[in-house]
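Quick start: what a row looks like.
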Amino acid sequence: MEYLGPSLEELFNICGRTFTLKTVLLIAITLLSRFEYIHEKKIIYRDVKPENFVIGPPSSRKEKTIFVIDFGLAKEYIDEAGEHIPFREHKSLTGTARYMSVNTHLGREQSRRDDLEALGHMFIYFLRGSLPWQGIRVDNARERYRQIKEIKRSTPIEVLCEGQPDEIATYMRYVKKLDFYEKPDYEWLRRMFRELFERNGFVDDNHFDWSNRLHHSTFANHRSSFQHQQ
């Protein structure tokens, strides 16, 4: 990780805690491909959060590449016999409460669908700047998780995605309806976002919101550090 650049959360702060639709779509299309690959390796990630996605070192060839790091909570969902792990309940919470799926809050075993729902929450966070269940002030962690769960369960997708393109709500409806054992249609989701990208007249030039700001930020020292280590 020392050879990599800042995380999406750090870049989000550099950009004033909001990303344009173009940048979010570029992130979404990329991460759907990353997670399709991870899932093909029989692994579910289980810890989606902006801090776990980083770009390459600024001013390097990998600056426009988004990497997935920290697989400490990852788990195989296909066993040695080639069978999908069984559905279970009463599981302890695993992941980051802000982004985890509702099923995870309810103590249900995670599968591919939960990774994608958590990604959806992160995309919405980038577009809105915050999520409705942020800022809960309670001393007890269990009560905080309970309140986050209840707000997630009671917030309609239409309200969560208000002011955003219909495709964002379509994504959330799709991933929430996936069966525990079901393989997501990653390509359909990517295609939906690509078509939205094109309809808005965006140019696929790998230019993100942070591309110009990054080199004037404190993260520019990643370049000298990276070159020294090389």
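That is the whole record. Residues 78 and 84 are 5 Å apart (CA to CA). Confidence is low (pLDDT under 50) at residues 222-230.
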